[in-house]
Amino acid sequence: MKHDLDHLMRERDLDAALFAGPVHGNPAMYYMTNGAGLTKAFVVKKWGEEPVLLCWPMEREEAAATGLRVVNLAQYEFTKLVRETGDRLQATVELYRRMFNDLNVSGRVGFYGLADQGRTWVLLNALNERLDGIEVYGDFDVTLAAEARATKDAQEARRIREAGKRTCDVIGQTVEFLQSHGVKDGALVHQDGTPLTIGQVHEQIGRWIAAQGLEDPEGIIFAIGRDAGIPHSKGSPGDLLELGKTIVFDIFPREAGGGYFADVTRTFCLGHAPEEVEKAYEQVLEIQLKMLDAYEVGTPTKEYQRKTCEFFAERGHPTVAEDPQTESGYVHTLGHGLGLDIHEEPRFSDTPTNEDVLQAGHVFTCEPGLYYPDRGFGIRIEDDVWITPEGEVENLTEFPKELVIEVK
Fold first, then answer.
1. Could you identify which of 9, 106, 124, 223 might form a hypothetical disulfide with 14, taking C-beta atoms 3.0 to 4.6 angstroms apart as the criterion?
2. Angle at the Cα of 97 (from 93 to 98), degrees rounded to 5?
3. What are phi and psi of 66, to 5 degrees?
4. Which residues have C-beta within 8 Å of that of residue 175, sequence separation ≥ 6?
5. How many CB atoms lie within 10 A of CB 17?
6. What is the pLDDT of residue 336?
7. Could you tell me where the DSSP H helices lie in 244-384?
8. DSSP SS3 for 113
9. Which tens digit of pLDDT belongs to each residue from 18-38?
10. Both 233 and 333 in a single domain?
């Protein structure tokens, strides 16, 4: 959480941290500016002090709404600097020098936020070489902002729950849309007898997402049959909605404006489900419910991945524990952190470098699955979970987990 920033800065031996770039699509800046609608800005956080926002005057009203102390970047006359130096990099270094001087920033400074990698590499090297008293620092693994964001307060959890509620409304609308179609030759059809396609369902889902006040930067997964057996296949637009085939519907929109994500998956079969699909579905649901009951603060997250692998292996399924390259059976981890990024801390991978431990405030997904593309099916069930400040496990997702969708 934000109140952890000073502690996390001290762990990195940072005197200050600078966050930069646009707010939309830039989780570190969204977090530090409380979601302000800024196209380009800086936030400087000195150890032990409140953050300061530096922005251009065109966005002064949006900046004021953040509640942060605001510095007007116009006073540094950047355009004049460019004209005088004839070199945009030199002018940018001088801009940073003046900003840091005015804010009394010195020592070890961490740099965060999204930008082009090559351009950033050039800029950070120039700053490190040319600014006296400044040591440029960067995180390779979990960044300062990402580690702070890993735990959420009640307000953040409420926002994720609300995004999830709207997401589940879209799932419900999708089910009703499918049920409104007739059946011909074993597939769903429109009233005129033409087939309903995966691409047409995608288009409808996109409209419902927008109507819920959400945005879809990552694109949904709505895939049938063999495609459902490939976890991140979004679905082939021309595929028909055939009865008896698994449909993996994984939908992960976020609040409009670059806010908090929800991430929910349900698996359906239209009309009926083959026996092997029913059996695999029951196993996926069983282990999900077991894990939802097992989460406990203080437990290494990799333990849940191990238990899931053991569960599936005992039932004859290949898993990534025995073969990390397997493309059938259980092929991924149990879940991932969720927030301003679709994938963030904590991690659930069973690897030596994963030292994550469940903490109060963590929000994450629980999404076991089984995948058999060569047998034409895949199954995944996913809910979003929050660990409350009291250490209780709270499921933020409310939608039925029924495999078969009845059709007329």
1. 9
2. 120
3. -75, -20
4. 268, 405
5. 27
6. 98
7. 275-294, 302-314
8. coil
9. 999 999 999 999 999 999 999
10. yes
Taking only the tens place, the pLDDT of each residue in 124-179 is 999 999 999 999 999 999 999 999 999 999 999 999 999 999 999 999 999 999 99
Q: How many residues does the chain have?
A: 408
**Beta partners for residue 329, in sequence order:** 371
C-beta separation of 231 from 332 below 8 A: yes
Residues 73 and 167 reside in one and the same domain: no
Shared domain check, 160 and 272: yes
At residue 80, what is the residue type? K
pLDDT at res. 359: 97
- Which of 148, 163, 193 is the C-terminal boundary of a domain? 148
Question: Model-level pTM greater than 0.90?
Answer: yes
pLDDT tens for each residue of 264-274: 999 999 999 99
Question: Taking all residues of the chain, what is their mean pLDDT, rounded to a whole number?
Answer: 97
What gap in Å lies between CA 74 and CA 57, rounded to an integer? 7
Domain boundary among 115, 130, 148: 148
| 351 CB neighbour count, 10 Å cutoff | 11
Same domain, 92 and 127: yes
As a dihedral over the C-alpha atoms of residue 303, residue 308, residue 313, residue 319, rounded to 10 degrees, the angle is: -90
How far the first Cα of the chain sits from its last, in Å, is: 50
> What CA–CA distance (Å, rounded) separates 290 from 367?
12
| 275: phi then psi, degrees, rounded to nearest 5 | -60, -45
Name the residue range of residue 73's domain: 2-148
Residue 46 tokens read as: 């000195």
Grouping H, G, I as helix, E, B as strand and the rest as coil, residue 335 is coil
